[in-house]
Predict the structure.
Amino acid sequence: MDKIKKLIAKKNKTKIVSLTAYSKNVASILDQHCDIILVGDSLGSVLYDYKSTREVSLNMMIEHSKSVRKGIKNSLMVVDMPYNTYRNPKEALRNAKKIILKTKCDAVKLEGGKKIYKSIQTLIKNKIPVMGHLGLLPQSDKSFKFKGKKKLERESILKDAKLLEKAGVFSIVLECVETSLAKLVSSKINIPTIGIGASNNCDGQILVFDDLIGLNPINARFIKKYANIRKQIKKAVSNYSKEVRKVQFPSKKYSY
Ligand code: KIV
C-alpha cells in the first residue's frame, strides 16, 4: 500500500501525528514519530519574522523543502504552496510540478475550498496528491479568529470539506475550528481531518514544531509547549561565552 492509502486507512482507527519542519536536522528527528511532516509556509513568520505568510515565495518553500527531504525516510512529506502560486489551474499546475520536481515531496497543500476547487481538481487529475486546508486560512484571513461560531460559516466549512473530498484530496487540515464543527466535519467525510486548534475530534493533529519545543516565543490557546528549548539554549550559550572569556574553551581536548 502506498503512503497516502496507508494514511487514509488510519481514519477511525488510529490518530495521525503530524508536525512542521523547515530543515533537515529537525525533520530527521520528527521522521521517527510522525505520519506527516509539513513544510509549512508558517516558516515566513516563525523563521523570517514576516507579518504574514503572504510574503513567502515559492523559492523559499523549495529551498527549505530540499533540506527537509534529506531528513525524511518514512513520513509523508507535504509542502505548502505559498500565496499567489495557485490563483488558477494553469498557475497551480506549473508551480506544483516545480515543487514536486525540485523537492521530491509526496504532496502539496493549498488553502481554501470552493474558490480553488478547479486548481485542486487539475492537480489531482495530473496525479499530484493534494492536502486541503480549511477553517482559519492564514494566507487570506483578516481576523485570525477561530471559525465555526456563525451558522453560515459552519455550513460553508462543511460544504467546502465535502467539495475537497469530491475533488480527491487525501486529507484536510482544519485550523482553529470550533470543537463541535470539527466533530461534524470529521464524521461527514471519509478522508482524515488533521486539526490545529480544532479539538481532539479530528483524525489527527498538527503543530508548528518551533511552538511545541518553546523556541518560537508566541502563546496561543492551542499551543502546548512540550519543552522550553529557549531556556536550554540560553544556558548552553551562556556557558560557552563564559568559558571562551575565561580561556577555558577550547581546552587541549578540543585542540589539534
Ligand atoms: O504553515 C503551516 O505550518 C500550516 C500548519 C499550521 C497547518 O499550514
